[in-house]
Amino acid sequence: MNEEINEKAGFFIRFIAYMIDNVLLTIAIWIVAAIALAGSLALMNNQTVVLAISLLSWAIMLIVYFGYFIYFYGTSGQTLGKKMLNIKVVSTDGTPLTYKKGLLRVIGYIIASIPIYIGFIWMLFDKNKQNWEDKIANTYVVKV
After folding, report:
1. Would you give the DSSP letter of residue 77?
2. Residue 143 bridge partners (DSSP)
């Protein structure tokens, strides 16, 4: 199946997929936070250790969050949320997705969210249904 000619996915299905991914990530991040909290409570009398555990847990949470998207975009173009809703990220030129494109999409998420999420809403007015992360990484999201 040639994904270039598939119908591009709209705002609401993409939003729902993103929310599914965020629920899954929130659960994973809460597990990391609970482990860090347990470690902090055990060593509560040492503020340096508590601070180190807090910083380490934040770093792990960021790695889990960004790693999730980079991994799934770089391997299959589908996060778990996108897979559940039968949509997929594809390159605009038809080449396979790479981890670099996954990283560019994650950077695009950050940029798109800064000005009151305008970068996500952008697709409602874009003829190719692209958000800013799509434009940055040269990708589309299509129905499969």
Report:
1. S
2. 87
Are 86 and 143 within 8 A, CB to CB? yes
Rg of the chain (C-alpha set): 18
Range of the domain at 69: 3-143
Per-residue pLDDT of the chain (144 residues; tens, 9 = 90+): 444 468 999 999 999 999 999 999 999 888 877 777 776 666 667 777 777 777 887 888 889 999 999 999 999 999 999 999 999 999 999 899 999 999 999 999 999 999 899 999 999 999 999 999 999 999 999 999
Q: What is the pTM assigned to this prediction?
A: 0.85
Residue 36 to residues 39, 55, 139, Cα–Cα distance (Å): 5, 10, 37
- CA distances 66 to 45, 72, 132, Å, are 33, 10, 17
* 114 burial type by CB count under 10 A (0-12 exposed, 13-18 middle, 19+ buried): exposed
10: closest CA among 91, 102, 130? 130
Distance CA 118, CA 27 (A): 27
Domains: count for the chain: 1
Residue 57 and residue 36 in contact, taking contact as beta carbons nearer than 8 Å? yes
